[in-house]
Amino acid sequence: MADPRHPHGSDALDELAKRVATLHQERENAGPRVGTDRSGMSLGLRLASEFASAILVGGLLGYGVDVVLTTQPWGLLVGLALGFVTGTVNLIRASRQMTEANPVDPQASGLKDNLDEEA
Predict the structure, then answer these.
(1) Cβ-contact 47, 91 below 8 angstroms
(2) Per-residue pLDDT averaged across 35-61, rounded?
(3) How many CA atoms within 13 Å lie on the side-chain side of 84?
(4) Please, which residues have CB within 8 angstroms of residue 94's CB and are 6 or more apart in sequence?
(5) Residue 41: exposed, middle, or buried by beta-carbon count in 10 A (0-12, 13-18, 19+)?
(6) Of residues 83, 84, 50, 47, the one with CA closest to residue 64
(7) Is 64 inside a domain boundary?
(8) Within-domain flag for 45
(9) How many distinct structural domains can be found in the chain?
(10) What is residue 41's predicted lDDT score, i.e. its pLDDT?
(11) Which residues constitute the domain of residue 61?
């Protein structure tokens, strides 16, 4: 007796299961996709949030040192400076990783500027 939930029978289900298994196998063989499909906006927001959080953490740690050691404004200033340096290093590291993941093609033609059009 045929299953009323599957009017086309088990042959159609078997065929669908094979197609799904094939697609899963192809996806696994394709390898991991590491950050190649991110949009520019999401990358910009990630970098900005990492930079701002480094400065914020540095400032909070510096303020904590000021409270404990009663050295007002020096701990805060040093903490903010260290947070800025840390944020800058993180930006450089992230941009290097993105460049290594998506290298620039040396054979690609560059954008023309206004001087190229006049000549």
Answers:
(1) yes
(2) 86
(3) 6
(4) 46, 47, 50
(5) exposed
(6) 83
(7) yes
(8) no
(9) 1
(10) 85
(11) 50-101
